[in-house]
């Protein structure tokens, strides 16, 4: 009888340890890979690997990372165990664990933005400074058309912890 009781206790301990381990693990993605499947990973805890391109100087509460292709970037907010991102991290390769989130820009918002940009061009002739914004708007609209959406998605992460990899 004691052996059965000990086996039951041991089974409970093993099961609880393995379920805790599963909960604390997160799937690891390079940034470029994550963005391909981001819509399937929303609100899940994942680990993303990328290079820091910028940290906010005033608060340090966010950083921006870039993937290997140097075509995709993502904003990471400092939450959880992250008190902030120091400027010394710029150029570093990080593995950041956190919850993947999305921000949707509606067609209405994008149209209003475009109208404001065109108004600035008409008022002060600042074509050069507005060209990048108009290019971004065009890219957003192209993405919306390709994905048959009436909004544009910006993915970001609420970072919980990070490790410097290099």
Main β-sheet, spatial strand arrangement? 2-3-4-6-5
Name the CATH homologous superfamily.
Nucleic acid-binding proteins
What string, H for helix and E for strand, traces the elements in order?
HEHEEEEHHE
In round numbers, the mean pLDDT is: 85
Structure commentary:
The structure is a single chain. The chain has a 5-stranded mixed beta barrel. The protein has helices at residues 2-24, 31-41, 107-124, 127-146, and strands spanning 27-30, 45-55, 62-66, 73-78, 93-106, 151-164. The model is unreliable at 1-23 (pLDDT under 50). Helix 2 links the parallel strand 1 (27-30) and strand 2 (45-55). The N and C termini lie far apart (54 Å). It has one domain: Nucleic acid-binding proteins (OB fold (Dihydrolipoamide Acetyltransferase, E2P)). It is 43% helix and 33% strand. The protein is of the alpha/beta class. Helix 3 runs antiparallel to helix 4 (127-146).
